[in-house]
Every structure is written in structure tokens, then in C-alpha cells.
Amino acid sequence: MSRNVIAITGAGRGIGLATAKRFARQGALLALNYQDTKDALEEVATMARDNGGGAILCKADVSDHTQVEAFIDAAMSQYGRVDVLVNNAGILHSVPTAEESWERFERTMAVNLGGTFAGIRAVLPSMLARKSGRIINVASELGLIGFATYASYCASKGAVIALTKAVAKEVAPSNILVNCVAPGPIETHMLIHDTVEFNDETRAQIPLKRFGQPDEIAAAIEFLAGPGASFMVGQVISPNGGTAI
Ligand code: NAP
User: Fold this and answer.
1) Structural domain includes residue 189
2) Would the N or C end of the chain have less CB density within 10 A of its end CB?
3) Closest residue by Cα to residue 31 from 63, 64, 71
4) C-alpha–C-alpha distance, residues 19 and 13, integer Å
5) pLDDT tens column, 162-199
6) What CATH number did the domain enclosing 68 receive?
7) 6 forms bridges with which residues in the sheet?
8) Residue from 8, 9, 13, 22 to probe ligand 1 pocket by mutation (most atoms less than 8 Å from CB)
9) Averaged pLDDT of the chain
10) Where is the signal peptide, in residue numbers (predicted)?
């Protein structure tokens, strides 16, 4: 059986970790990027190996394209190819737009948009040569609808959606499928610690009356990486409990 090679950025916690666990259970060959948080990744690596797969862990700051290239190079050296790249790493902060610093705006764009672009650019040459591959970008529903005091984040995620659509059209003729997941409010470190929205009032405004769980986004990513998504090109799937309909 041929095992899929899956590269995931920001795999150390939250949605990235839940995604890594899903693919580890499949016995995939994993390349797992982290910046600082990696405590859970040895367990994921063991899970992948126990299921016949494997894992390498790679430290990289995705805002630096040379580090992203090194991450993809490490996956290529280990496995000879990357079948699926999940551009998941991201940051968020809240501030009134008039008070936003240029440095934080640039950092948000460098991580969320630059990191995604760097991943796509690093992986495409080998995917184009093989005429095969999947790229899944993690955007946000806030990139679709906007949200007060999150302008830098919304702009970066809206750009990830536009990037997804443009690259999808460009590389679909080479059988490379590029799609996007745009989660609603998911119970991760980001929602709990980087926003003020993790409260009962926000919860009550969600039609489903609860926050999402990381694995509910991982499920959408797994779908986009799998055989059932063979006709999906440039699409935005938004598991959001009904917050953006
Ligand atoms: P999280 O728990 O805060 O995880 C963010 C991940 O991104 C961490 O693993 C973090 O690694 C990594 N990361 C941040 N900056 C990085 C950098 N410069 N280089 C490499 N990795 C970096 O939040 P999450 O909710 O799982 O977020 C995952 C993705 O989902 C993000 O793109 C986020 O924008 C998106 N999203 C989340 C929600 C939500 O409600 N939670 C909604 C919509 C979209 P370190 O800890 O090692 O820095």
C-alpha cells in the first residue's frame, strides 16, 4: 500500500495537532512543523509509526521563506515527495484599527499570508513534475465576513482565500488540487487566549450554540486530502456552526 506523505505547518497544537492525529491514525508519512510548541508531537509520531507510517519533526518559523523551504526539503529528503501540504500555522490579535502597529500588521501578514505563500512555492515544483498533489490552506470565516478589531487578521485570511483560488486555477491542469478551509470559532489556544470572544455571549450567537472542536476542522482537511475530494478545486469549506451562512 502506498502511504500518503503529509506536511503540516503549525502541527504542535490546536487544529494542526488534530489534523496530524487524523493522518497518524491513517498510518501516513508525516512531516510536522512546529515553531515552539511540540510537546504532543512525539506521541503523534509514535501513533503514526504504530500504524505503519512515520514522522519527522521540523522546527521552522513560517514567516521566513527559507525556513519553510528547509521544512519542505526535509520532507522531500525523508520521503521523496509531498502528496499533501496543509498550510495551517497562523496568528491572531485584536486591536482597534486606528491603534494597530505597523509591526503587528506586517507580522500577521508575514505568518498567515507569507507562510502560506512560501509553503505553496516550496512544494509546487515537485508536485508539478509529478502532476499530482493536494494543497489545503487554513484561512478563516473572518476572511469572508470581516470582524471589528481584527482587521490585520481578516485581511491576511481574505488574502489566503484569494491566493487559494488563483493558484487552484493555475495548477489544476497539472492535477494539483488547491483548496481552503475557513473555520468558524474553534476551541483552541487562539480563541481562548488571543481573543475576548470565548464567552457565553458569543456562544449564544452561534446557531449551533457551541464552539467547534479542532477535530471538526481536521475532518474537513482530511476530506480535502482524500479520494472524495477529487473534483474539488479552489473551494472554501467553512465549518462554522452557522456563524457565516
Ligand atoms: P493555535 O492553537 O494558536 O495554533 C496555532 C499554530 O500555529 C501553533 O501550532 C503555532 O505554533 C503555529 N504558528 C504560529 N506562528 C507560527 C510561525 N511563525 N511559524 C510556525 N508556526 C507558527 O490556534 P488554531 O486555532 O489551532 O490555529 C490554526 C489555524 O486555524 C490558524 O491559521 C488560524 O488562523 C486558523 N483558524 C482558527 C480559528 C479558531 O477559532 N481557533 C478560526 C479560524 C481559523 P507555536 O505554538 O509553536 O508557535
Assistant:
1) no
2) N
3) 71
4) 10
5) 999 999 999 999 999 999 999 999 999 999 999 999 99
6) 3.40.50.720
7) 30, 84
8) 13
9) 97
10) none
